[in-house]
TrEMBL record:
Organism (species): [Ruminococcus] lactaris ATCC 29176
PANTHER family for the chain: OXIDOREDUCTASES (PTHR22604), TRANS-1,2-DIHYDROBENZENE-1,2-DIOL DEHYDROGENASE (PTHR22604:SF105)
UniProt lineage: Bacteria, Bacillati, Bacillota, Clostridia, Lachnospirales
Keyword Zinc included in the entry's annotation: no
Record's protein name: Oxidoreductase, NAD-binding domain protein
Location of the GFO/IDH/MocA-like oxidoreductase domain: 135-249
InterPro entries according to UniProt: Gfo/Idh/MocA-like_OxRdtase_N, Gfo/Idh/MocA_domain, GFO_IDH_MocA-like_dom, NAD(P)-bd_dom_sf
Length: 335
């Protein structure tokens, strides 16, 4: 059997999330990181030394110009995701961009149109959807283990450090709970329930700088309701519950899930699943990208373009509420 050539990644960004990506790449067969670029050449050099990466750059475009890459992982601040994704596409290089890819449906449509025109793979890095625990939960749901789905509920949140310059509250850098946390809740809901809801309701709380700090979203599907809450204001009981006519599936910390539990209609424990294998969940999305690119695909079936676009449409409404101060948006005091 012919051995496949090593898939060569370039990494944009030298922060914490890029560290996690490179650790995953080291654990993935037939994959290597051959170059890294950051806004600071010194940071890029230190990062390259840490992971024994051959070349480093203090300019993102220079890396694309000089390196022969099979794909790029974008791990910079959210506010730069769109610009760098489009740059990679124009250079003909497949992209795995950390979530949220964009907070605007107009930007999402533009990116995916360009990717389709140039036949370049693009995927938003919602790694949670690839985790074995979440995949097992979807398997249970599709097998009818809880009967007919009636309600889904996701809560994700924590008390974020109150600093206007950090990634949570810096609006220019793409801060806010929607692009950081609600993206998980929305993507997981679509992963389990699909993208064909009939109606949506959104409640938002903003701080004095008009950064969104809490969201509550309700999606009305044909025969069930889905509730999502994301917040920077409290350490919530992070969980995802799928409740049906004959039982319930519960997932603790669904955005990095490793255990799920199945109950019957009377609340009796029926089955548990524990992921004893995963060391770094980014491995799964890396494998997905490599497989898709090698098979000539422009999108993933697990994180399809439509999922990213539908999330962006929700983000449109959150931004619009903020700018027009409609009644659905509720302001709270600052720090």
């Amino acid at each position: 059997m012919e051995k496949k050539e090593t898939f060569r990644f370039g990494v944009m960004g030298a922060g914490n999330i890029s560290n996690k990506f490179c650790d995953a790449a080291e654990k993935t067969e037939e994959v290597c990181v051959t170059a890294v670029a950051a806004r600071s050449e010194e940071r890029a050099r230190e990062f390259a030394e840490k992971y024994e990466i051959h070349t480093y750059y203090g300019n993102y475009e220079e890396m694309l110009q000089k390196e022969k890459l099979d794909g790029v992982y974008i791990g910079v601040v959210t506010g730069m995701h769109v610009q760098l994704t489009e740059l990679c596409i124009r250079y003909g290089i497949p992209v795995l961009c950390e979530k949220a890819l964009t907070g605007s449906s107009e930007e999402a449509e533009r990116i995916f149109k360009l990717a389709e025109e140039k036949k370049i793979f693009v995927m938003e890095g919602v790694w949670s959807l690839f985790l074995p625990a979440n995949r097992k939960a979807r398997e249970w749901l599709r097998e009818g283990r809880i009967g007919k789905l009636a309600v889904s509920n996701v809560e994700i949140g924590f008390t974020a450090p109150k600093n206007k310059e950090n990634r949570y509250f810096n609006k220019e850098a793409g801060g806010g709970a929607a692009l950081d946390l609600l993206i998980y809740a929305l993507a997981l809901t679509m992963y389990f329930c699909g993208e064909d809801w009939k109606e949506e309701q959104i409640q938002v709380i903003y701080n004095e700088d008009q950064v969104d700090v809490t969201e509550h979203v309700i999606l009305r599907y044909e025969e069930h309701l889905s509730f999502m809450t994301a917040t920077y204001l409290a350490n919530v009981d992070e969980r995802l519950e799928l409740t049906g006519s004959e039982g319930k599936i519960m997932i603790r910390h669904p955005h990095y899930a490793d255990q799920i539990v199945l109950y019957d209609g009377q609340g009796k424990l029926i089955e548990q699943y524990s992921d004893q294998v995963t060391e770094n969940g980014f491995v799964y999305e890396i494998k997905e990208m490599v497989d898709c690119v090698r098979n000539g695909k422009t999108e993933s079936s697990i994180v399809p373009h439509r999922m990213t676009l539908e999330c962006a449409k929700i983000f449109d409404r959150i931004v619009r509420v903020s700018s027009t101060e409609q009644s659905v948006g509720i302001k709270v005091g600052g720090f």
